[in-house]
Write a structure and sequence with these properties.
By secondary structure, the chain is mainly α. The protein has two domains: about 1-65; about 70-250, no CATH class. It contains eleven helices and no strands. The chain is elongated, with a radius of gyration of 22 Å.
């Protein structure tokens, strides 16, 4: 349980991930860091209860979530899960990290850190734009193709669409390309020297680097779900649709 009478700076220093939750509720720890959680909530006329519940929920999910549990789900359910993660990335994770980048002041840092931060202010928006383009392409191409295969096999509605789609796509080529695109955080990781901090690094930069690391871990889990669960299921699905089409062709 978070103490409500501690200043936000202290709370976020102890629990970096808390900053992201406060941001969702319109509380900027960079701006209101010297106020307590209870005081800022009273000022904004919001209850501390949903914030505390969100915090506990986040901690619980980090403790219990096991991606391999999705092995038992159908491809459409797995895709729904991945799409929901995409929305969280776009609507919550990326905007908050961009906010931290913008609020990290270079003038109070060492020359080396100033250079890194100035480069990050240019690089991060480009990374975010490229990342969003990538996940939207994935939804409109890979996910759409897999769902066509699923519909053709299990609902027999769209076998013709699946046939024409299979002239343009193969799950093997999709899987190879996906493995090549996996390390999306490489540029940011190298720019920040693997998120290196020291005792003089300001809190906002430490929180930013912690968020970048957390985001990288989330992307690794996301990629593992796609590579180890979704794509193998889709390869089997594609093979079954091919056999179904061959059977249909033999009958004609």
């Amino acid at each position: 349980m978070l103490p409500r009478n501690k200043r936000l700076f202290e709370l976020v220093a102890e629990n970096h991930a808390l900053g992201a939750i406060l941001h969702v509720f319109g509380i900027d720890f960079c701006q209101h860091g010297h106020q307590t959680l209870e005081a800022i909530c009273r000022q904004k006329r919001i209850s501390t209860i949903p914030i505390l519940k969100e915090w506990e929920s986040m901690r619980q999910q980090e403790r219990v979530f096991a991606p391999d549990l999705l092995k038992n789900y159908a491809v459409d359910a797995i895709i729904d899960y991945l799409k929901n993660a995409h929305r969280i990335f776009m609507r919550r994770r990326l905007p908050y990290m961009q906010h931290l980048v913008e609020n990290a002041r270079a003038d109070s840092l060492s020359p080396k850190m100033q250079e890194i931060l100035n480069d990050l202010k240019v690089a991060f928006p480009l990374f975010a734009e490229d990342f969003i383009r990538h996940i939207l392409e994935e939804e409109n191409s890979t996910f759409k193709y897999i769902l066509l295969l699923d519909d053709a096999l299990y609902h027999r509605g769209g076998l013709g669409k699946a046939f024409f789609a299979m002239q343009k796509h193969t799950m093997q080529s999709i899987a190879i390309k996906h493995h090549h695109d996996d390390d999306e955080m490489q540029g940011i990781r190298e720019l920040t020297h693997h998120y290196a901090t020291d005792s003089h690094t300001p809190l906002v930069v430490r929180v930013l680097y912690s968020e970048l690391q957390r985001f990288e871990k989330e992307l690794q889990i996301h990629a593992a779900i796609e590579n180890r669960i979704l794509l193998p299921k889709a390869l089997v699905l594609e093979d079954k649709v091919k056999r179904l089409l061959q059977e249909k062709a033999a009958l004609n």
